[in-house]
């Protein structure tokens, strides 16, 4: 084994210690992170020639700009609330009389809504009772499902109505089936058969001398249903009037000025409300009351006094008490009869004769007209008039 000399070992140790000391000194001379950010970095030229570092002690450190104060967002001022339209109070329902007249309402789902509206309309009339007999999916086409002629006969025998109101047809846009009939909707044989059924159904009422009111169909949200309603309304009107009934047209109440279907419109009080449901077929409560509004006028006219007990009739034969004139008793005894006087009587203003009918009385003094026409003489102008050319203070002629 070869042993290294001690001198070589000592030299190696010295080199290692020198390197460690140089590293420690170099680390101590490094600037801190804050100094490195504040002072510029020195290059080799500055280190060799000893360039003086600038003094940063008196310089102010750049401060970050102040944060802007964020103003809170102002909430938009809500628009003023519109005043809510006050609906008139519904009069309390009156107790019906034992001998009250019965109005029978028959038909499909629209007739059921009409009956609800009429109950509200005649709630304050004790002499009128509304009886609604409606079948939701019925009509005059499918008599195998619901035979309306047969059902109506039994209803009239049972209820003895004073008036019958019909509203049908919303479900009749389908194939007609009956005795030897099987026709598709829209064909000529279909309309001929349906027209005959409408006439026979109306005659069941008018043949008993019962007033009949047939209510037309409103417009619908579907264009096809609306077009069918127009044709059916023409048919209902012609056949109802031909047998002595009355047709009630409600079309304008559920369309705009162009005849188009509307969902929202005016109710019976003139307020804008929703009249139809989302399906464009059924009626809301306001829509049902509006249909009854169209029927109510004709119904009250046919029923008479019991339908409107709060209206005073002036043609019942009971004259109003005569108003006594404020005259002395002796003068009142002399008055027996005062003849009527015409406001256009010519004797009132003395105009019984035409102008020139009686000759004017003769006069010897010539008039200013005669002097001007015959002799050319004009009467002097009155003093102070614009054509008075006389000097002030001159003697009058």
TrEMBL record:
Stored InterPro entries: DUF459, SGNH_hydro_sf
A GO term for molecular function: hydrolase activity, acting on ester bonds
Leader sequence segment: 1-36
Pfam family, one: DUF459
Compositional bias segments (type: Basic residues): 66-76
SUPFAM superfamilies tied to this protein: SGNH hydrolase
Protein name: DUF459 domain-containing protein
Lineage: Bacteria, Pseudomonadati, Pseudomonadota, Alphaproteobacteria, Hyphomicrobiales
